[in-house]
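[audit] Reproducing an earlier prediction to check determinism. Same input, same settings, fresh worker. If the tokens differ from the archived copy the diff job will pick it up downstream; this log only records the rerun itself.
[audit] input (114 residues):
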Amino acid sequence: QVQLVESGGGLVQPGGSLRLSCAASSNIFSIYIMGWYRQAPGKQRELVATLSTGGYRNYADSAKGRFTISRDNAKNTVYLQMNSLKPEDTAVYYCSAGVPPKWWGQGTQVTVSS
């Protein structure tokens, strides 16, 4: 059983930044590809970024150049640094482990609004 706990969401103005964190219950980064997804109201959940066991990063077109996925193995934590945020980034952001995702966090709300 893997538990993922997200934090760091909140309300931010357009152009601002947030860093999301995802704490895993154990060291799973050598086993699972880690990912961040998001789901806006009325829309399907979509992939934002993934980080492979070997450190390869993959981003959705909407995230390229603005978001960065990273991890701290010592803290069993994955991060999503989000810069230049736009209103269309408003969504619940979920951390995942595995491809396809086998484990999900509970989500953290990100609202971009003036």
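[audit] rerun output stored. Observation attached for the diff report: The mean pLDDT is 96.
[audit] end
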